[in-house]
Amino acid sequence: MSSINLKHIPERSCAVCKAKTAKKNLIRLVKSPEGLAVIDLKCKLPGRGVYICPDSNCIERAKKSGALARALKTEIHEDFWPELEASSKNFAPNLNLKLRSVLGLARKSGTLFIGQERIANAENKKFLLMFASDSSESVKKFALSHEHIELEMNMQELSQAVGVKGGVQIVGLPFNSGFAKSVREFIF
Length: 188
Ligand SMILES: [Zn+2]
Hints:
The protein is α+β, with helices and mostly antiparallel strands. It has 2 domains: 11-89, YlxR-like (Hypothetical Cytosolic Protein, Chain: A, 2-Layer Sandwich); 92-187, CATH 3.30.1330.30. Helices cover 40% and strands 18% of the residues. It contains 8 helices and 9 strands. It has a 4-stranded mixed sheet. A 3-stranded antiparallel sheet has the order 4-3-5. Helix 4 (92-108) runs antiparallel to helix 8. It is elongated and about 60 Å long. Bound molecules: zinc ion. Zinc ion (ZN) binds at residues 14, 16-17, 19, 52-53, 55, 58.
């Protein structure tokens, strides 16, 4: 018996907790030619990358243990840590995880409006709209007339997040709901 790996997902380990995960779930750091630790969110800078979880526990541990400095073979300036904290909070996979859980809960509680038609039919309701990155132009145009977020998720991922089969392009949370409030808190 042999198994065929159809889609190879590159993995890396966090320099601090050693957890191995898909490279895209970790923050890449490199040592610049000047010897500074640099955050490389786009994963494009040359040099050997060192990876860390976008997680305040790992960052705190890195600070105390010197694990990142050792892995990068350079000293780490104090200014670097707040920058790394901020990057981890805004890290897209982290935001998507939080969003997924909020959208899932909103769906279960019946607060989530799924699809442009349902949103448009809820007259006089103000919404926070979120649309998939591969939504149609007309859905995007519709979203632009409300407060909206373009998700870093495609239709398939958004459908999964809300637990619906098929291509969900757009969802809406009533503007004054607690769910909309919590999304706004971690996105804006
Ligand atoms: Zn870690």
